[in-house]
Here is the input.
Amino acid sequence: MTRQTLKHSLLVQLAVIYTRYLVGGAFVFASLIKIKGHRFTQMEGTVAGHNPGYFFEMMYQSGLYWQFIGVAQCGAGLLLLTQRYALLGALAYVSIMANIFVITISYDFAGTPVITGLMLLAGLLLAWDWNRLRVVMNLPAVAETTSPLFESRLWELVGAVLFAFTATYRALTDRYNLLLWLGICVLVGAVGLLVAWRRYRKAGFVSR
Here is the structure.
């Protein structure tokens, strides 16, 4: 299967779109607590040494740096959710996520490196825009087409709703219900998928 064939595959297109939603939303969700100047974790960490709690406490105590991390995460997440600027968001996401992954394998985080490793692997979505990234390798850019389904402005609207809900929910409360947040996000994503499917099925664009 050629790259151009993959770019027109319905399943691949949806996988790229919803992976952006997943990791972008997770970044926005995790960033707001830092921007508000609150602790991200309640791990004990008052003793210096090979102690993840102490490491996070030191970053928290830095104040400005802690909030800067939050702003960077929020910006990367927002760019991914917009879909339109997802390439820039993916570049920022991989940079930040690589740093987080190395932190989790440097300290005793139990199974956390598995989660952060999978999130870092999600950065492979950069391969979707390889035709545009080629210029970084001093190679000519290549024009590639996708389908009307992938280019729909509907995905930008869904991303905007996800960002607005996540940012508002996290900004208004320090205590959160993770299942509630996930449930509403899944519902928003499902509604967007249903609308897109019906619209483009009716127009005869969705064939596989």
The chain has one domain: 3-131+146-202.
